């Protein structure tokens, strides 16, 4: 059984990634991290930090996501990827939010050319190129026109992996 619940939205998003089609442009200065989006299993409050995890071979539900209705929801926690509406600087933290029933655009995402872009802020999910430890913070980056591989993601087997 696939952990990705298919909808017309999800099928449209996954098809390019499955075909190996990712963001195009000039070669980026930094190599992709290969890390996967991770909830960390944290349900300690209504809004928690999003992380990236080095070991994408793990079968942990913390690394599994369902994409439906423009939301990206973690299988383990039920929390949704959230921009928080923060546009205070060029690079801001990514969060996970408990109430996925909210109609807030902060919880809505589109995937284009391998980038995961927030509807409210226009910021894209960013690995930051950080490989300093096994678990690092996830960020959102203002300049989605960048060809950096830090902004390029592929969806495989329910995981969202930086390529």
Give the class-level CATH name: Mainly Beta
Share of residues in helices: under 10%
Computed Rg = 14 Å
What is the ordering of alpha helices and beta strands?
HEEEEEEEEEEEEEEE
Number of domains: 1
Mean residue pLDDT: 84
Largest sheet: 3 strands, antiparallel
Descriptive keywords:
163 residues; 15 strands; 7% helix; 31% strand; disordered N terminus
Give a brief outline of the structure:
With 163 residues, the protein is mostly beta strands. It is built from one helix and 15 strands.
How is this structure best described in words?
With 163 residues, the chain is mainly β. It has one domain: Trefoil (Acidic Fibroblast Growth Factor, subunit A) (Trefoil). The strands form six sheets. The chain has a three-stranded antiparallel beta sheet with strand order 1-3-12, with no helix packed on it. A three-stranded antiparallel beta sheet has the order 2-8-6, with no helix packed on it. Strand 4 and strand 5 form a beta hairpin. The longest helix has 11 residues. The two termini are 25 Å apart. The N terminus is likely disordered.
Blueprint of the fold:
Blueprint lengths: L7 H11 L17 E3 L8 E3 L1 E3 L11 E4 L2 E4 L5 E3 L8 E3 L1 E3 L11 E4 L2 E4 L5 E3 L8 E3 L1 E3 L11 E4 L2 E4 L1
Antiparallel strand pairs: 1-3, 2-8, 3-12, 4-5, 6-8, 7-13, 9-10, 11-13, 14-15
């Amino acid at each position: 059984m696939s952990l990705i619940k298919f909808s017309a939205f999800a099928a449209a998003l996954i098809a390019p990634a499955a075909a190996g089609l990712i963001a195009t442009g000039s070669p980026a200065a930094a190599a992709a991290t290969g890390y996967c989006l991770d909830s960390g299993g944290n349900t300690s409050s209504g809004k928690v930090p999003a992380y990236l995890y080095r070991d994408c071979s793990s079968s942990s539900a913390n690394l599994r996501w369902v994409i439906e209705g423009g939301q990206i929801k973690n299988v383990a926690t039920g929390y949704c990827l959230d921009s928080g509406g923060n546009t205070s600087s060029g690079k801001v933290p990514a969060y996970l939010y408990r109430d996925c029933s909210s109609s807030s655009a902060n919880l809505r995402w589109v995937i284009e050319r391998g980038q995961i872009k927030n509807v409210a802020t226009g910021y894209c999910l960013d690995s930051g190129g950080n490989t300093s430890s096994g678990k690092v913070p996830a960020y959102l980056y203002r300049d989605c026109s960048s060809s950096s591989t830090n902004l390029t993601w592929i969806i495989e087997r329910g995981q969202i992996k930086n390529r």
